Every structure is written in C-alpha cells, then in structure tokens.
C-alpha cells in the first residue's frame, strides 16, 4: 500500500495535461446488422443533476443504410465521461478534445464486438476491459484491512495491464494469463497507447485507489455496518489524502477527481473535530456535513487543499447540482464564498446565467412558457387528452428538480420519436412539481433547447400520496434521485397506459398496435 500511496502523490502532479483548445472531437462508426437505429452520445456528469459548463447537449443520429454514423463535438468537457448508446446498450467513453475515433460493433452483440481505432482509441479500449470494470465493488463482509489488500490487488493488476499495452509486450504474464488475452493483443496491435493516454490511465487508476477506501467507509456508514471504534488517523491508508494539492489537469473532469476531492476534505473536517476533542468513529464518516458549522468550513478547506483550477471545477459542479435540484437556500449560502475564491469567470458566469433563466425564463418570447394554457390542473390535463382522441398521445412525465439526470439525456430519443410519428401520434411533456420550481422548469427547457409541447402541473407537495394525477399516472417515483421521469400512453380510444416504455426502448413492433 505504501508504494502505491507514494506513486499516487508523485504521479498526480506529474502531467500538466493541457489541451489545445478549439479542436473538434470526432466519432465515426461502422455498424453490422443495423436497421437504421438511433445512436446517441450524452454527457455523464460527475455529480447527478450537475450542468455541463461547456455547452454540450446530447446528440442523436440514425445509422444510415450503409451502417455508418458520425458525430462532431465542438463543445467538449475534455477528460469527462460520455455515453455512446443504441437500443438498450452502450459504452462509456472518456473523451478529450481532438480525439478522432473510428468505432465498430455488431448491433446484435454490442458489448463483445465494440472496438475503437484512431486517436484516443487505446484509452477507450483499455477502459472497457473486464479488469477495469468497477462491478459490485463494496463487500460488507471484508474488514478494513482486507478491503485495503483487495483494492491494492486491483490497482496493481490494472497498472500492469497499462504498462504491458503501452510497452507493446503481449508476452507479459499479466496478458498471457488473462481470459481476455485476445482483446489485449488486439489493443496492442490495433490501438496502441500514446504517452498521453498512458499517463492519463495511470493517473486515473491511482485516483481510483485513493477513492476506494474512503468510499468503503462511506458505504459502511450508509448501511450501518461501520466499525464503532474511533478512527485511527495515523493509519497509513489515510496518507493518500494528505498528499500535495490535487492538481493533475487531465483528471479534473473525471469521476475519480470528484470523489477524491470530497474525501480529502471529509478527512480534513474529521481531523479538525478530533483535534477539538471530539471522538470520531468510522460509523460517522458521512455525518460530518450534518454539522452546519463544520460544513461552512468546507469551501475554505477546498480552496486550501486544491490547485486553483481544481477548486473552480469541483465547487462549480457541486453548486450546479444544488441549483439544478432547487436547493436554493444552500446554493445562496455557499455561492458567495465560492465567488470569493474562484479564479475562472467561465464557471461563475454559467451559474449566473442559469440563475437568470430561473428568474426570467417563463417570460422568454421564444418558448412562451408563461402562457396560462401551459399550466394545467387535473381537469385541464384530461381536457387536453380528450382533445387528442382519435390520435394516441405519448406523455413524458418529469420533475423539474429530479429529471436532470434522466429525461434530459433522452432528448434526442424524444425528438426522434416526435419526428418518426409526426401526424400519427402526439407527444407532450408534462412537468409535475411544486409551484416554487416553475422557474426551474422553464430554465431547464430553455438551457437544453428543448423544443417540445410543454406543460407544467403544479402540486402543493410532492409528498402528498393522494395527489390525483400522480396517483393516476403512477409516477410518484419521479420525485427522487433514482428516477426523475416516467412515461405514459393515451391511446386513440382514450385508454391511459401507465409506466409505458421510455423513448429509447420503443420499437416499431411495440407501437404497431397503437398507431394507425
């Protein structure tokens, strides 16, 4: 463990990772057995409900008759994770500005046949290996020392694979003994790693190691399984959170960076409490932020612990998440402190622009969401459906506060659905939420250029189990971090089918019984 910690501290500050701005990222694909399916590319935020600060919006394109598709991305968050998907399957892609990927797969067997070539491909192919799959990670039956050894073994294996591929050495033991040896050899011959990719992958693996133990403590605390013994902060495993300022620029937009940064501050806060005379147990790892006095110190600690660029990125994402979930009180509490230390106007300006959309979006002349006809009550909702009788109506039901991570990435599917069934089926988008979040509803529609048939259905409380429309549509799950959206179909005869297929899952054979 000690060797890995020392390697982590050194390598995280080694590579400057600066990108050449203005380079478009390209992805072209060749697909076997395609029937002109829709392919989408969406941003996978590091924190649920956080905005993308580079202007990226989900993309969608249909595979052509020759089995080809193509994306050009001009607004990319370099080093962030994106999801390339079709039908009900897909893959994560960590993309950088200037990547030029040529991907190929069989649509009937996407996971096993996907392979990338071109600039950035080696990084993609290695991250898709089974050895790099996080999988079911936290085992409640492992004691902390056992978990430490378990994580070290995973980290060592991944580093060996990266080294073997970069050195183009298929004779290394780690490859010869692997069940997926053929895939590793194919990466060596078909998409060898550049030095930049090699350094990024090593950084990411070591940051994964740094996240793992703190994540394990958080998992145990959440499930009431953590040790009740006082935390021993002299344990060598905490050394990884006491390194130099976390400033590897190529990791700033990765999931690893976001997790590492939070746990570094969590450790600092716990240590402060212990120095003040409080006994801190492992079971309390997550509860440190419950103390508002302690939580108020967090932004200053972030600023002291991070490079300026890392601070700007990390806190902007956290604040964006609060704003997108309608946590206005907390947002207003922490935003001035962030502005005090932030060095980049990019993030502050984006947050301010979204605030203005919340305040003024309802009166936007293009969307006209303040039109009284756009606000429904129970009776008006059914009058609207009645006006469509004789023609089916697909209903997208979502929450302004919790729909960010669920419905917005599906906009290419919703748009494609409208185009495919234009003149045969109506598509309406109904946001159900409390009146205080009507401005948030408008802001998300405008910010994502969502040109749909929008309606807002206000409820006095999302916790009311007797709200008539929520009960009728069976959509109470939209008021949670785990769902955020639901789908219904009103048939041409007026029957209301709840929990209908999501737009990405709809196939022509599903709709043939409802479309004339």
Q: Give the proportion of residues in helices.
A: 25-40%
**Cα radius of gyration in angstroms:** 25 Å
Within CATH, the superfamily of the domain at 372-511 carries the name: Glutaredoxin
Q: List unreliable stretches of 5+ residues.
A: 1-21
Can you tell me the CATH architecture of the domain at 372-511?
3-Layer(aba) Sandwich
CATH topology of the domain at 372-511: Glutaredoxin
* First and last CA, distance: 65 Å
Please report the total strand number as a whole number. Answer: 13
Mean pLDDT, all residues: 85
The main sheet orders its strands as 11-10-9-12-13
SSE-based structural type? alpha+beta
Largest sheet: 5 strands, mixed
Quick one: CATH class of the domain at 372-511? Answer: Alpha Beta
- DSSP helical segment count: 18
Instruction: State the shape.
Output: globular
Strand content: 5-15%
Characterise the protein shown here.
The chain is globular, with a radius of gyration of 25 Å. The longest helix is centred in the middle third of the chain and has 28 residues, at 195-222. The protein is built from 18 helices and 13 strands. It has a five-stranded mixed beta sheet with strand order 11-10-9-12-13, with helices on both faces. It has a four-stranded mixed beta sheet with strand order 4-1-7-8. A four-stranded antiparallel beta sheet has the order 3-2-5-6. Helix 16 links the parallel strand 10 and strand 11 (454-458). With 516 residues, it is of the alpha+beta class. It has helices at 2-11, 110-113, 121-127, 144-166, 173-176, 181-190, 195-222, 255-275, 292-295, 298-305, 308-324, 328-341, 345-360, 378-386, 411-420, 438-447, 468-473, 508-511; strands spanning 25-32, 38-44, 59-62, 68-73, 81-86, 89-94, 100-106, 115-119, 393-398, 426-433, 454-458, 485-490, 496-497. Among the domains are: 25-122, Immunoglobulin-like (Sandwich); 372-511, Glutaredoxin, CATH 3.40.30.10.
């Amino acid at each position: 463990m000690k060797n890995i910690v020392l390697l982590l501290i050194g390598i995280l500050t080694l590579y400057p990772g600066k990108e050449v701005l203005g380079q478009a990222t390209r992805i072209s694909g060749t697909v076997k057995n395609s029937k002109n399916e829709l392919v989408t590319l969406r941003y996978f935020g590091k924190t649920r409900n956080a905005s993308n600060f580079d202007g990226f919006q989900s993309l969608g394109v249909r595979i052509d008759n020759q089995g080809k598709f193509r994306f050009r991305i001009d607004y990319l968050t370099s080093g962030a994770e994106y999801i390339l998907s079709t039908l009900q399957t897909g893959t994560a892609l960590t993309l950088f500005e200037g990547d030029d990927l040529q991907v190929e797969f069989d649509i009937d067997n996407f996971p096993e046949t996907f392979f990338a070539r071109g600039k950035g491909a080696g990084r993609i192919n290695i991250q898709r290996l089974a050895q790099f799959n996080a999988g079911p990670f936290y085992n409640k039956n492992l004691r902390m020392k056992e978990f430490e050894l378990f994580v070290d073994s995973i980290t060592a294996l991944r580093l060996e694979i990266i080294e073997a591929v970069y050195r183009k050495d298929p004779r290394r033991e780690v490859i010869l003994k692997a069940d997926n040896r053929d895939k590793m050899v194919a990466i060596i011959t078909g998409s060898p790693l550049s030095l930049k990719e090699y350094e990024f992958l090593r950084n990411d693996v070591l940051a994964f190691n740094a996240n793992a133990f703190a994540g394990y403590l958080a998992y145990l605390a959440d499930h009431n399984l953590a040790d009740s013994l006082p935390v021993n902060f002299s344990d060598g495993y905490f050394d990884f959170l006491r390194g130099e300022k976390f400033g590897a620029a190529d990791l700033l937009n990765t999931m690893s960076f976001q997790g590492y940064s939070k746990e570094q501050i969590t450790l600092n806060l716990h240590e402060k409490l212990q120095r003040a005379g409080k006994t801190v147990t492992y079971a309390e790892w997550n509860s440190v932020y419950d103390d508002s006095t302690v939580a108020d110190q967090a932004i200053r600690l972030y600023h002291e612990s991070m490079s300026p660029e890392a601070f700007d990125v990390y806190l902007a994402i956290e604040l964006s998440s609060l704003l997108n979930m309608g946590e206005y009180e907390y947002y207003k509490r922490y935003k001035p402190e962030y502005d005090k230390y932030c060095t980049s106007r990019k993030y502050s300006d984006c947050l301010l622009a979204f605030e203005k959309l919340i305040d003024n979006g309802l009166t936007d002349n293009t969307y006209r969401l303040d039109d009284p006809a756009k606000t429904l009550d129970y009776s008006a909702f059914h009058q609207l459906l009645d006006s469509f009788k004789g023609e089916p109506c697909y209903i997208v039901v979502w929450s302004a506060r919790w729909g960010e991570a669920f419905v917005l990435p599906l906009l290419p599917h919703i748009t494609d659905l409208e185009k495919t069934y234009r003149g045969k089926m109506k598509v309406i988008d109904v946001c159900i939420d409390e009146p205080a979040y009507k401005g948030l509803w408008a802001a998300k529609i405008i910010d994502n250029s969502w040109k749909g048939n929008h309606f807002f259905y206000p409820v006095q409380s999302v916790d009311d189990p007797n709200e008539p429309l929520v009960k009728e549509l069976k959509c109470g799950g939209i008021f949670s971090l785990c769902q955020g959206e639901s789908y219904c179909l009103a048939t041409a005869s007026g029957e209301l089918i709840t929990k209908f297929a999501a737009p990405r899952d709809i196939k022509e054979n599903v709709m043939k019984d409802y479309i004339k």
